[in-house]
């Protein structure tokens, strides 16, 4: 609301936009769309809002050019109006929406064309939420689940079941981590990760036991995978789980800033942790 008021105030003080519209009343919407796309600043849409108050024609055009939107608890009750106003939305940011139950109560209004979804800062990964969203966003290609309470290997497989067309996946920086989050097991060879189109995955800040084995598993199962981000990743050594040692002990944890497909990390890295 403050941004809208600010934009309206600017338009009133500096009527260049209105003069522009008055000088070219004959231009079709298609030409204006090209002009507005040239002026627009990526996903911020900072130039669309002041243009939208110039005229009804400009309002209609800018509404069609709005491809991303962030939803908060305050805007959830108006989702039906928002989605009607912006018919071409492709990206939905729910990271600031805390009331998940209220959000799910309005899921029937979610547009079907969403390609990118951000559900970060939601505590635990809620299976019910993912199932509901997956039914409305069957063509989702980008999912961000950053800064959740925790992130487990089982969550990764559940996400794959819900959104099999993902090309980008962000599971970075869970708030709580342990040596049991990503543990390789015998089922890994028999249970492929159903993300055939995955090109990029962000595992920064996670705790992964035998990380090389897990990364190899990812590349083996995701044939199109090009990038694995592992900044601040914690890799658990193969220490005896019955030793009772603290999981934060330096002898059990190696911290790597990035793997960079570096096959030359020698055993010296492990030896230096002793």
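-> sequence recovered:
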């Amino acid at each position: 609301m403050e941004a809208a008021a600010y934009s309206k105030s600017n338009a009133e003080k500096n009527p260049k936009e209105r003069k522009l519209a008055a000088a070219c009343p004959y231009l079709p919407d298609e030409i204006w769309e090209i002009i507005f796309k040239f002026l627009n600043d990526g996903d911020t849409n900072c130039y669309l809002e002041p243009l939208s108050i110039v005229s009804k024609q400009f309002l209609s055009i800018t509404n069609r050019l709005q491809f991303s939107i962030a939803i908060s608890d305050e805007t959830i009750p108006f989702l039906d109006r928002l989605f009607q106003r912006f018919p071409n939305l492709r990206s939905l940011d729910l990271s600031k929406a805390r009331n998940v139950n209220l959000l799910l109560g309005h899921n029937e209004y979610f547009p079907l064309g969403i390609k990118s979804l951000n559900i970060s800062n939601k505590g635990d990964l809620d299976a019910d939420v993912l199932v509901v969203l997956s039914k409305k966003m069957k063509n989702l290609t980008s999912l961000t689940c950053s800064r959740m309470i925790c992130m487990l290997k089982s969550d990764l497989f559940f996400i794959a079941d819900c959104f099999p067309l993902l090309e980008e996946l962000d599971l970075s920086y869970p708030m709580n981590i342990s040596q049991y989050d990503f543990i390789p097991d015998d089922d890994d060879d028999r249970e492929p990760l159903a993300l055939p189109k995955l090109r990029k995955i962000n595992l920064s800040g996670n705790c992964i036991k035998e990380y090389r084995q897990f990364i190899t598993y990812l590349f083996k199962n995701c044939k199109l995978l090009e990038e694995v981000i592992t900044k601040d990743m914690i890799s658990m050594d193969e220490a005896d789980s019955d030793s009772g040692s603290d999981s934060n002990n330096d002898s059990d944890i190696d911290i790597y800033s990035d793997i960079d497909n570096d096959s030359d990390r020698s055993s010296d890295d492990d030896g230096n942790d002793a």
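Residues 1-11, 238-274 have pLDDT under 50 and may be disordered.
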